[in-house]
Structure formats: C-alpha cells, structure tokens
User: Fold Dynein heavy chain, cytoplasmic from Biomphalaria glabrata.
Amino acid sequence: VPEEELQLQADVPVFYESVLLKAKNRDCRLVVVKAKFKMITEHHVSNFKEECEKFYNRFMEQGPGSVGENLQLGDSLMQKFAHEADELEEKRLELSKAEKLFELPITLHERLLDVKKQIAGLQQVYALYRDLDSVKNKWSETLWVDLDIELLSKGIDDFIKNLRKLPKSVRTLPPAISLDQVMKQFKESLPLIVDLKSEALRERHWKELMTKTDQYFDMNPKTFTLAGIFSMKLYRFSTLITEIVVAAIKEMSIEKGINDVEEMWKKAKFIVMPFIKGNRKANVLGPIDEILQNLDDCSVNLQSMSASRFIGPFLHQVQSWEKALSKMSEVIDVWLQVQRKWMYLEGIFGGGDISKQLPEQAKFFDKIDRQFKKVNRISFSYIELLWFFFISDDELLSILGSSDPECVQEHIIKMYDNIASLRFIKSPINPKELVVSAMISAEKEGMDFRAHISTSDRVEVWMTSVLLEMRRTNRLITKEAIFYYSYKKSRADWMLDYQGMVCLAASQVWWTWEVEDVFRKIRTGLKTALKDFASKMHSQIDQLVVKIRSPLPKNDRKKYNTALIVDVHARDIVDGFVRDSIMDEKEFEWESQLRFYWVREPDELYIRQCTGSFLYGYEYMGLNGRLVITPLTDRIYLTLTQALSMNLGGAPAGPAGTGKTETTKDLAKALGLLCVVTNCGEGMDYKAFGKILSGLCQCGAWGCMDEFNRIDISVLSVISTQLQLIKQALVMKLTHFQILAKKMTVLYKLSREQLSKQFHYDFGLRALKSVLVMAGELKRNAQELDEDVVLMRALRDMNLPKFVFEDVPLFLGLISDLFPGLNCPRVRYPDFNDAVEQSLAENGFIVIPVQSFNPEERLFLSIDQVDKIVQLYETMMTRHCTMLVGPTGGGKSVVLNALVHAQTRLGTPTKVYIINPKERPVIELYGVLDPVSRDWTDGLLSNIFREINKPTDRKELRYIVYDGDVDALWVENMNSVMDDNKLLTLSNGERIRLQNYCAMLFEVFDLQYASPATISRCGMVFVDPKNLGYFPFWERWRRTRPQAQGKIFESLYKKYVPLLVDLVVEGLQDNQPVERLRTILPLTNLNMIQQLTVMLTATLEDVDYSSTELEAVMIQSMVWSLGAALIEDSRVRFDTFVKYLASMSVIYDANKLAEA
Assistant:
C-alpha cells in the first residue's frame, strides 16, 4: 500500500469529527427557522384537511355516484372528479414529505382515501358502461333485415357476467346498480325484438305499433336499423308488443289458409271422359269425388276462419271465397243432374226402336242434343268476330270464360309477332278498372300507347281496340321520328329516342329522299353529288360500327345492329349507282328498290317498288331483327311485290336452308305487316287451312305456308279453290371481310368434298349462320382479337363437335391451311368446366384428360370428356335444337346428364322431359282433329310442349329430349319449331312458341332417315365411341375393388383384355390382321367389357385371393364374356389365343397326347 493512502486512512477520523461539529453548529443556528416552518406545515395540513372534507362532501352529493340512472352524465363527472382527486393526492404526498421532514406525525386524510377508493370502483363500473355503450352504438347501425339475435344475446350476457365479476363493494355502488338495471332491461327487450322479427308482421302491424307507442321511424328495409328499435325502449311496451305479435301470427295462419284454398283451386281440374254410344260422340264430366271433398273441406275451413276474431283484414276475401265455392257447388249439382238426364235419354233415343215409336220426341231430343254438344265448341262462334285465329279452342275458351283482362297475357305471343305482353295499369278515373297502356316486346322494348284502352267491355271489343291503338300509336311515333330525324343530335343518338322498327322506317324515308335529292342536284349541274353522298353513307356506317363496339345495353346493340344491316344494303346500292353512273330516279336500278315515302295526302307512309305501292302496316314487332339483304333477296322482294300488286301470291322454291321462309318474313317486316308462319303437314285438312285463311283475311296479315308440298293432294285441290276465291275478292275490291368470307366458303366446299359422307353433316346456310352468330358473340366479348382469329375459332368450335373420329384431323388440317400460323387453343369456361368435372366425379366416372397412344398398353385414351360436354354447351348457345348423334356406348346420355347436373350446380336448374317419339303413332304424338265433330284431342308431345313453354319467373332451363330414331314421318312437323320461327303449329290452328329458356335435343343413333331440311335446322354433336373407348368403364369397375385386388387386375387387364378385344372385334392378332372371329350377334367392345365386369363381380367373393387365383377367375370370366357370343369354330381360336397369352399348354388331340 502506498504511503500516501496510509496517510489518508489515518486522517479519516479527524475529518469525520470536524464535519460532525459543523453540522451540530448549523443545527443549533436553525432551531428557530425549523420551528417557524413546522408551524407553517401544520397550518397547511389543517387547510388541506378542510379542503379534503369539502371535496368529499361535494363528491358524495354531486359526484358520479349520485347521478341515478343518468350514467352518461356520471361518466363525464367521473373524469372530472378523478382529475381533482389526482391533484389532491399530489398535494397530500408533498405535505406528507414536509411532515416527515419536520418530524411531525403523518396525517392520513381518511376522507381523501375514501373518495379514491370509491373512484377506483366507479372507474371499473363506468369503463364497463362505456364498452356497453360502444357496442350498442355498433349494434344500432345493423340493418333490421340483417339482425342476428344470437349475437345480441351473447353480447349482453357477457356484459352481465363482467359486472358480476366485480368486487361486492363495487357492485353495491349506485351506478353499478343502475348499470345492472339497464343491462337487465336490454336483455328483457330481446324476446320482444325476436317477436317483432316474426315473418307474420305486416306493414299494418308496424303502423299500429308506432301509433300506440308514439314512436315513429322509417320502415324502409334499406335504411331501417336497430337504432329505431333501441330508441323505443321496448321493455316499457312488452304487453302491447305481445298482443300485436299474437294477432299477427293468428292473421298469418288465416292468410295461409286462404292461400292454400287459392292454390288448391288453381290446380284443380275436372276430368273429362269421352262418351260414345253407337255413332254418337260427346265429352262428359268424369268422377268428381275429390273435387266435392275439397269443396266441403274448404267450406269448413273458411267458416272457421270467419269465426275468428282476427278475421278483420281478410273478411272480404273469405266472404268472396265462400260465395264462389257455394256457387261452384250449385253449378256442379246442376251440371251432374243435366248430364245424368242426357245420358239416360241418350240411351233411350239413341236406339232405333224408340225413335220410330216416338218420332216427335226423338226429333226434339236431337235438337237439344246438338245444342248440348255445341257448348264444347262455343269458340267457333267467336272466331268469326275476333282475330283469335292462331290459338286453340281451349285457349280461346279460357280467355272468353275469364273476367280477368290479364288472362290474355300468356297468349299474346301467339296473336302478335314478337310481342310478349301488354302493360296493364289501374285507370286514373276508376281505380278498380284496368286499362292497357303499352305493348312489351319479347326483348322488353316497350311502346307506350298515346291513349289508354279500357278493359271494361267484352274481351273481343277491347282487344280489337288494342290492335287499332297499336297501329295508331306506331303511326304517330313514326311520323314524329321522321320529323325529328337527326335534329340537334347525331343520327346514332337520335335512334336511342325511338323504337327499333320506327328508326328503320324513318331512316329509310330519309334515305329515299336523300337519294332523290342527289338526282335533283345532278340535274342542276352538281356532278359529284352522288360520290359525296356515297362518302356520307360510308361515314354513317363507321359511326354505327364504333357505337356497336362500345359497351351498350342489349336492346340498344340490337337496334344498331339492325340499322347497320339496312345501312350496308343502302350503301351497296349507292356504290352501285356510282359505279354504273345511275343519275336519274326513273332508272330501273332505282325503281326496283324498296323506296319509302311519307305522302302528305293522305298523311301516310307508303312503300313503292316498280309498279307496286303499299301502305305501311304499322304492326309493332319489337326488336326481332332483319335479314342481311343480298342481290338474291332483292330479286325475291321485287318478284313478291310485283305479284302482290297484281293480287297474286308468291311461291319461293329451293333447297332446305336457303332462306325462303325468312326472306318472306323479312319483306313483311319491311312493310310493317304481321307474317304468320304455318308448318303444313299430312294432318292438315281443308277446314283447318280455311280457318287460317279466314283469320289472315280478317286480320290483314300475311301467311307463309312452310312445307306446303307435304299437304295431301286431295286437300290441295280444295285449298286451291279457297285461294282462288280470295284472289277474286281482292281483284273485285282493288374487302377484308370478303377475304374472310372467301375462306369460310372455301373451307365448307373442301369439307363437303374431302371429308367422309355422313348423314348428319351439313355445310349449308344454316350452319354458316350459326358460325357467324358465334363469331359475333366472340368479337363483342373480346374486341382486341383479330377478326381472322375470331372466325377461325368460330369455324373450329362450331364444326368440330359434329365430326366423326377419322374426320377430325382432316378438318383441323384444312383450317390450318386456310389460316396459316394461327394457333387458338380451346377456351375453358372455368366455372362450367369445374362443375362438369365435379358432376362426373360424383357419379363415379373416369375423366381422362388428353388423347394419347401407349404402345405398351395398346390403349387409346379418350379426348377430354369434359370438352365434349362443353361442345354441346357451346352448340346450344347458338341453336335451340341440337342432335346428339352416335352409336350405342359412346356416352351420349352421360354427356347430356353431365350438362344438366353442371348447369343445376351453377344455379340454373335444368328440367329434362324424355320422349320416345317412335313408341306411338304420330296422331297420338301431336294430337288429332276429328274431321266430323272438329273436336281436338291433345297428343303427348303437344301437351308437354305447351306445359314447358308456359311463362315462368324462375331462372331455369327446360329441355325436351327425343330418345329414338329421327325420320320424316314424325319430325317434319317440327320444322317450324327448329327454324327461327320457333313455332309448333298444330292442326287445330294452335301455335305454341318455343321460349328462350326451352330447347329440344335429339338423342339418336344416326340420321339415315332424316331429311336435309331437318338436319340443316339442328346443331350437331357427334359422340364417337372411339373417342371414349372401353378403358374408362373398366377403370371405373376396378376402383370399386380392394386396393390389392385392383393392382393385380390392372396388370391382368394389360396382359389379356386389349389383345382379346382386338382379336374378336378388329381381327388383329399381335398387331397383324387375321380372319375376324365370328359371333352369333354383333357386339361392341364396350358390351364385352360390361359383360366381363359383371362376370367378375358375380364370381368374386369377399375373401382374400392370391394373384394366381385372381388370374384364374379372370380367365374364366373372359371366356364367358369376351368369348360368349362366338360360334363353335371361333371359340377354338379364342381358346388357343387365351392359353397362349397365359403361357398354358394347348391340347390339340387328347388321344395323341395320352399315347405320347
């Protein structure tokens, strides 16, 4: 240790004594000062004690614990008093330090401590209150329709539990007691909220609740939240709410009872039975026990409803039903009484003996008998008064027998072309009366009538008024559209102000005037006028193209499309005038065009072509489109208009699918006239045809008789007389696109020449149209695609489904030659493809994704089965009639069922109605009209067709599947349904339109007996067994076996099955052609595999087998399945080949082997 440190250690006691002495001296000098500060501290403590006493009193009287139920005020006071208590606590700590410094006793300040203790408890209470208030505010924002009562119940229970977890001293505080009361009241309100959520409550109940509680709120489901319910404080009105809810539930049970009665009688039908006595025929009422029982049950139920004290809102309905059922019961009693007497007298006077003995009475009975039967045909007396010529007698009776004007709605589509419904509104003069205010087309385009039509008169009267008002309104709108053509806006924008057919008529009037104005300018010396106008026409088309390619509503796009079709034809005419130097309106090239003129006197629209002049018909037809006008179309127009000008008809002739019917309809559209298409057939006689002609004459409509040559020649002779009479009465009265088009036509020409000749192949105009429709849809959905890519994809996707296995590579080769360098993969529909795969998997089918050939396994794997279903899906997008063609075992039914299940899985329920059209005569399929009594007997197909095409609000699809051979005997009657008319015309004059949600499918082996007219009208999907093969069926069975067995059977299959099937079916042995084995009856490879799996299933038991045992079972099953149908000689060769594959010895001669 250094010397210096030792010295410092020695000096420490001396230094300490010196410091202690100085401290004592300083303490002595501060005695007076300390005494002074001690007195000051005691004074401060005393003042602070008084301050704490005042704070305590104020806290107890005005603090957060004294607010009663006003917890919101207490929460704000809580924060204020807690802040003051914190400040006082800081003062107390400073005073405690001073007391300790001056050796004074420490003062506890009990009042402050009590306040702090209460504040600590109250802070827990008010924190819970704030959480509850925050959650209630969040709940208040919940819409009434989204109410989750379990969430509210669980939430309030959690808050009550949290309150009860607080110390007892805290729970006894007044705010805690108030908070507990608030929570209990809220919990008591929850059952009342549940009651108010009852589906039985109607608007009238809510109004009663608001009136009696003096609480008003908006019941709009989009804005009504729980805030309105919370503000009511429901616990105050628990009794009232219970009474209202109980009444609502009772009233709902009455309402349900009334609805059940209405539903029962909507579905109730009388059974009508044929009554035949000798040569007399009539329909009589069948058994009505069920109807009488329902009458009694409903009457008793309605009486019990009337006795209820809750009947008030439904008293009028119940009384109306009681009156109606009472009248129905009386009518049935009288009906049965008359029927019994008639049948009794029919038996008496129907025989010859009584008639001879009582001739006067017999004559009197015959007279009454004719009147009785005439009731069943009352409609014929009205047909002469109305234009209901194109609906059946039953439909006409349903209209005439109903007092509800809206009963005509489901039949409007049959009376007019493309008109779906009428718009009925309440009359502003008499609210109990309905008036017709507009017509609505099938595309939902409307035409509002300038004058509303009252429906108070007879139906035939006001429906005639509707027809006249439709034409009057159409005329006024057309005149207005012509006047305001392109006024202060572009032509494209002007079109949006008017209906589609009005825009076409007005545009053609102005085009006619502009062309003739060009001719006038040329005469004045302006030589470039025609070229300038041609440039204007090109510009107009460009503007429409830009509009069409932009996002548009569906109807506006249709309107522009139709206008573009007419504009392109008008442009071609003007371009032809420029090319051929046509400069005068008297030139034939101009005279031969359809020219539209609004003639000042008589202030009407006229259409002229050569010598023919026709008044525009003003028949509103919605947005049903126009044909592309070709030079051939122009010639047909000219021929027909000249024939009409000479009071003659027209007879377009030509192959199926060339546009005869559609061209005739399009000319009628151009003239604003209704064109009624009727599909003629063997079942049509001269009376049915005369009824149609009568309707056409009285309506002023055109008639297009499709398949006219199919009418029986004896009937044609009478029809010719009818037509001659009508004629006599009239006389007495009277560039890049061109390249693509070339490629398309070349492809179809090469396909027709180079592909195999199949009955179901069609490369005509209808097939071409389907390609163009699909190409247009693709272009609209993907405008960035080049047009050659769009066309190539449309050609491939619309034609590939119909080709047989061998033609597919040839067709793809043709497409690749015509569109070199283009590679457009198949489009996948993600949702649809996934739904198809899930449907197949659920049904145990094996999905094999690609086409490949495995030389070791000698198996062709199928092309994607899902793609075949997608092909059917795409074909049905453009065709409403589709044929699934292919041999048995190809999977046609599986493809169809998978499509149906996939669409149902995606939210579009699909109903399928399966018919075998060959299991009954044609008259039982379509119905028959009695040539004597003119009574109509419905057929199976006509009945189903009528039912599925009834209007529905549900989003669903309905398919009729014809599972059987297609031949001209029955399918030719469907031609008018298969073409664009989509109308089934029956022999009784009824016309049933195939709705957009319905389609027809034909599941058929081949189309050997179908006519080209039928084939060209349908989309084709060929399901070739070669695409599927038999491996998927085997694999499906193998996966049902235990895993160990499955692996063994997999190797056994590769070893035996493909080689044996090739030997039996194809005549191949070790890939070398040999003589084919002969069978007793023809079998497909799939038939044999099915038999093999059945044999294996029957032979195998639920025990463990060794691989050797399983091979023995496999060989035995193959012999009795694959070789079962072989004749004796072929069985020897089959046996030899099986043993060769199994490495077994072959015994050729048992005796020689024994000797050896």
Summary: The domain at 736-820 is CATH 1.10.8.710 (Helicase, Ruva Protein; domain 3). The mean pLDDT is 82. The first helix runs from residue 3 to 29. The CA atoms of residues 982 and 994 lie 5 Å apart.
